[in-house]
Structure prediction request, 478 residues.
Amino acid sequence: MTIDFFADYSMTIDGATVTSPATFETWNPATEEMIARVPDAHRDQLEAAVTAARRAFPAWSARPVAERQALLARVGEVIERHAEDFMRLLTLEQGKARAGAEWEIGGSAIWCREIATQSLPVHVAERSAGRSVETRRVPLGVVGGITPWNFPVLLAVWKIAPALVAGNTMVLKPSPYTPLCTLKLGELLRDVLPAGVLNIVSGGNDLGAWMTAHPGIDKISFTGSTATGRRIMESASGNLKRITLELGGNDPAIVLPDVDIAETARQLFWAAFQNSAQFCVAAKRLYIHEDIYDDLSTALVDYARTVRVGDGSRQGTDLGPIQNRMQFEKLKALLADARAEGQHFLLGGEVDDGPGFFVPVTIVDNPPEDSRVVVEEAFGPVLPLLRFRDVDDVVRRANDTEYGLAASVWSRDTDQARAIAERIEAGTVWINEIHSFSPHVAFGGHKQSGIGIENALDGLAEYTNAQTIVTRTHQAAG
Ligand code: NAD
Prediction:
């Protein structure tokens, strides 16, 4: 199928092209130029999407799982076949540099292929002469997917693949800041999936709220901020929707004094600034042992000076802009606050006039533990370095947050690092590496970083209900 990735953005409802009289604009964050207008779904159009998904559900859920898996593998092939267009469009709408776009689009294809190998086994609790007790997993019905703007394609695929393999149908809404790749994915898949199985609707936050309250949607799978997650949990209670919430984080990285300074500095740089730090699991607080604080912070700054921030579509750019003006203004306010408090910047801190939402790599030297740059999720390239002396103290400080998404520990002494990792309140703790994800490894937040799991069989199970069937094969004589 030949489609133009750079024009004519439409929604996909019941396998068909749907536009809307109302539209909203999408912008290139590197140039502040408008890219395109996209449909702003009306409430009736959401109704149509939910109706189509409900209508498609009986046939889709009745298909053998192997057929659904095969179709998901084809979704991965489609992404792979159109990878170049996806990467260019992703950079245009999201801002990320080429390497980041390759990681995201390549990862999306891999996820489809790998989730397509998964299925949930029937659990046999008893099988004896005359009686069996089995628990199997059945799909929920219609899943509403709501995604953010930092990894618009990969995070959509993290929902589409397990939801569909498990036998559900879907209505998916991308972020209004980055709807373009998701709309094109819907367009490409009209020829691949049966009508109504995957409906893609675009619109603002209201559309998301309509979805979470909709009685025809059985589950919400959401990735986004903790504030929105709380609203969704409240609004989803009407019909006791199942929810999976992947929310914000304020991940600590704890660096012990025995690390290789230069190598760790390089790894920590990318741990913190990948995707211009618009990453839920970015290392957001760097706790460095006082014995190496000066050496490591110098090495980090030296490495940071070699990294090029700019338009992601230009060759040689390592880090792109902030994705949208709202986030850009939030970061400028955060930096102004740090300056007003007299904090010391080892690097960056000053935002130039546009065009483009560019924030330089900013490293803050040991700010107070209760300052905004430490307590808040910046979701941008502003990194506090914090000194510590004592392990008990650093564990307490690392855990002193409402978040619990991920963390990392860096040391040659992996026993000690492991002992620290076990004391961290977070869903993932990496030791001497970071940001390794897999379709076969569970990912989810503790505390206010979320509810539920994505990926692995635990993640697949979240798209199902358990059904226990108890069979007595010989009826007792009446
Ligand atoms: P956001 O919560 O503002 O928006 C996310 C999505 O929710 C968008 O599609 C938006 O339109 C929709 N939405 C907004 N209000 C809604 C409402 N009341 N009801 C239903 N839907 C609504 O988040 P964002 O700014 O797009 O993303 C940044 C946040 O996402 C950060 O906090 C980041 O840490 C988090 N995030 C978490 C993960 C994770 O896996 N834990 C991954 C990526 C991003």
User: Anything to note?
Assistant: The first helix runs from residue 43 to 62. Residues 120 and 457 are 7 Å apart (CA to CA).
